[in-house]
Amino acid sequence: MKVLVAVKRTLDPYVKVRVKQDQSGVDLSAAKMAMNPFCEIAVEEAVRLKEKGIATELVAVSIGSDKVQDQLRAAMALGIDRSIHVQASDELESLNVAKLLHAVVQQENPGLILLGKQAIDSDNNQVGQMLAALCGLPQATFASRITVRDGWAEVAREVDSGEQVLAVQLPAVITTDLRLNEPRYAKLPEIMKAKKKPIATFTPAQLGVTPRQHLNVLSVAEPPPRKAGVRVASVAELVDRLKNDAKVLA
Amino acid sequence: MNVLIIAEHDNVSLKAATRHLVKAAAAFAGTVEVLVAGAGCQEVAQAASRLDGVARVLLADHDCYAQQVAEAVAPLVVALMDSRQVLLAAATTTGKNVLPRVAALLDVAQLSEIVAIRDSRTFVRPNYAGNVLVTVESLDSRIVATVRTSAFEAVGEQQSAAPIDPLDISHPQAQSRFVSASTLQSARPELTAARVVVSGGRGLGSAENFRLLDGLADKLGAAIGASRAAVDAGYIGNDHQVGQTGKVVAPELYLAIGISGAIQHLAGMKDSKVIVAINKDPEAPIFQVADYGLVADLFTAIPALEAAL
Ligand SMILES: Cc1cc2nc3c(=O)[nH]c(=O)nc-3n(C[C@H](O)[C@H](O)[C@H](O)COP(=O)(O)OP(=O)(O)OC[C@H]3O[C@@H](n4cnc5c(N)ncnc54)[C@H](O)[C@@H]3O)c2cc1C
Ligand SMILES: Nc1ncnc2c1ncn2[C@@H]1O[C@H](COP(=O)(O)O)[C@@H](O)[C@H]1O
After folding, report:
1. Where are the beta strands (DSSP E) in A32-74?
2. A120 CB less than 6 Å from ligand 1?
3. What is the pTM of this model?
4. Is A118 in the pocket of ligand 2 (CB under 6 A)?
5. How many residue pairs from chains A and B have C-beta atoms closer than 8 A?
6. 20 to 30 Å CA-CA from A81: which of A167, B1, B158, B210?
7. Is A59 exposed, middle or buried (0-12, 13-18, 19+ CB in 10 A)?
8. Omega of the bond leading into B163 within 30 degrees of 0 (cis)
9. Which DSSP symbol is given to A57?
10. Cβ separation of B122 and A218 shorter than 8 Å?
11. For the residues of B156-185, what is the DSSP string, one character each?
């Protein structure tokens, strides 16, 4: 079975977010970038499926500027066999990303498509569900356990009430949650080998997709800061403050 | 513009989130209808019909909607969007699962977790774990949005209940099958609707120690929350996780105990009205958002606090 993994380049989750002076967006000019953490988990899951003999070929795809090739190389260093880079803006809307991924799915015919549940920049949590809709495929979002058997994937999903288990017929779209696995680190020989693995490049036009603008960003601003708090010296003072100043305790 | 709301429910009861959705829907100054899709969910429809401002309830009661799987609910909703301009669902795992599928089928964008409605096309939503707020205008013919319910008030009840229209429709599908679900048996208030939340982090040290929060939560009538580290370490189930990838809460009072205050955790609680932090590390970032910070060992502070209440 061929597995397709969608990988997004995002701001490193542990660095501070800075808004541009003119409020047009977040300043990424000198920022440390990384693979979206949920995509790392998707890559790891794909690699494990190959190690178990379930997957036979692993393909990563990323949509964005030439810089996304760094994340494709990183994915290949972890065990992805080859990559596809779709050249586009780094700020493409989720629906356009889903349309481009749909075109890639039609070209590649994977048996399973893995995505992160959410990109930690836009916090959209949309592309997997949209892709499933466009492909007419079943979806299992927020996966914390995946078992592939007899043409179906049984997926434990992290839902608000705890856990839900769904079985989806393959091919299917699965999006990863944090507890699905713990991604490994790439070893130096694999990083070297990944430099020779192929990356095929496409334009949206070559895939027959014309991205369309649906949203217009008017401003990007920092939320108002919370007013400074106070340190209390003891539990007794804390209770007194909560009762008499904040009035949140009777 | 006419609004369709997808009710948040578990076939048995209507969730409080729906009350907040109706409030958000009022901003569009049109007719507000609520879709209840489920199986054996008649009582949910009745509860929805009593919410203030609801003009009509559409009831899709069929086995194929029992688990509200996206493959069945999405085509149902798409069919209903012919004559309506706005679609809202709560930013819960159900809403997040279904709505993007609907948006793609309608060929429109989806707005995730809106926190404010400026006008009927302009919305505010967080990005980067709430580190930035984006004001965005939709250019689409229809608005499809998930709503961060903690950012909107709840509506009350109306004098006379709205009519309930049963829909004679079903979307059985064979591509996905429900296997099982965990059921919650907590006597505590729901995390996202609680007035007080007591949350614990890695500082609690073990699943056994985590139970120390129970007594405190009992006294405060609080729900119990947790950091991702606490959930990952197995101290408590994932349904208690607060943060960027867990639940977003905004209670009157939030107590963060043994939680360092990583941005991903703050994303889920920093809009709480009053925040208390108890941590032995005076430099912990949680103190930057706390209204009241107590530098102390939690193993002495928790029993003392419980005794003082
Ligand atoms: C993509 C992504 C998504 C994430 N999503 C979430 C999310 O939704 N929610 C979330 O919470 N995290 C999330 N995280 C993880 C987050 O970055 C932090 O790792 C996590 O919040 C840390 O949890 P913690 O504060 O319990 O643990 P720690 O950071 O280890 O903090 C433990 C704290 O306990 C204090 N402590 C220890 N012992 C005592 C004692 N005896 N008395 C008092 N204090 C004590 C310590 O001083 C310390 O401050 C996410 C991370 C990523 C990359
Ligand atoms: N530009 C992109 N290139 C490749 N995959 C993407 C891109 N944007 C989003 N994705 C995938 O979709 C997932 C969810 O993203 P989102 O819906 O934008 O939050 C990510 O974790 C990726 O797997």
Report:
1. 33-35, 57-64
2. yes
3. 0.96
4. yes
5. 246
6. A167
7. buried
8. no
9. E
10. yes
11. -B-SSPPPEEE-------SSEEEEEE----
Cα separation values, B7 from A130, B33, B197, B301, B305, Å: 21, 10, 25, 41, 39
Neighbours of B307 (CB within 10 A): 11
Question: In the numeric block, which tokens belong to residue B63?
Answer: 């086995």
- Token pair, residue B138, equals 């939709």
**Which ligand does the CA of A5 lie closest to?**
2
Q: Which residue of B lies nearest to A141 if distances are taken between CA atoms?
A: B97
Q: Do B101 and A133 touch (CB under 8 A)?
A: yes
* Reported ipTM: 0.95
Choose one of B96, B131, B199, B259 to mutate for the ligand 1 pocket test, by most ligand atoms within 8 angstroms of C-beta: B259
The answer to whether the CB of A158 is under 6 A from ligand 1 is no
Residue A169's nearest CA partner among A138, A136, A130 is A138
The DSSP element (H or E) to which A242 belongs, if any, is: helix A235-244
CATH number attached to the domain at A2-244: 3.40.50.620
Q: With CA atoms as reference, report the closest residue to A61 among A37, A77, A82.
A: A82
The reported pLDDT for the residue numbered A227 is 85
Q: B117: Cβ below 6 Å to ligand 1?
A: no
User: Which atom of ligand 1 sits closest to the CA of residue B230?
Assistant: 26
Distance CA B77, CA B34 (A): 11
- Count Cβ atoms below 10 Å from residue A187 Cβ, excluding itself: 11
A243 φ, ψ to 5°? -80, -50
Alpha-carbon gap: B159 to the closest alpha carbon of chain A (Å): 32
Q: In this structure, which ligand is nearest to the CA of A142?
A: 2
- What's the pLDDT score for residue B279? 98
Contact A161 B71 (CB under 8 A): no
Which positions 11-30 of B are in contact with A (Cβ < 8 Å)? Answer: none
d(CA B176, CA B164): 29
Q: Nearest to residue B92, comparing CAs of A169, A135, A69, A157?
A: A157
Residues B172, A16: Cα–Cα separation, whole Å: 47
B300 close to ligand 1 (CB < 6 Angstrom): no
Instruction: Please name the residue that has the structure tokens 């190389």.
Output: A73
Ligand 2: nearest atom to the Cα of A36:
21
pLDDT for A97-139, tens place per residue?
999 999 999 999 999 999 999 999 999 999 999 999 999 999 9
Q: Is B204 in the pocket of ligand 1 (CB under 6 A)?
A: no
CA of A133 to the centre of ligand 2 (A): 15
Q: How far is the CA of B151 from the centre of ligand 1 (A)?
A: 25
What is the tens place of the pLDDT at every residue in B144-182? 999 999 999 999 999 999 999 999 999 999 999 999 998
Angle made by CA atoms A111, A116, A117, in degrees to the nearest 5: 110
3-state per-residue secondary structure call for B222-240: CEEEECHHHHHCCCCCHHH
Angle at A41 between CA A127 and CA A65, to 5 degrees: 55
- Atom of ligand 1 minimally distant from the CA of B258: 34
Q: How many angstroms separate the CA atoms of B301 and B306, rounded?
A: 8
Helix ranges (DSSP H) in chain B: 17-25, 42-49, 70-80, 93-106, 207-210, 212-220, 228-232, 263-266, 298-308
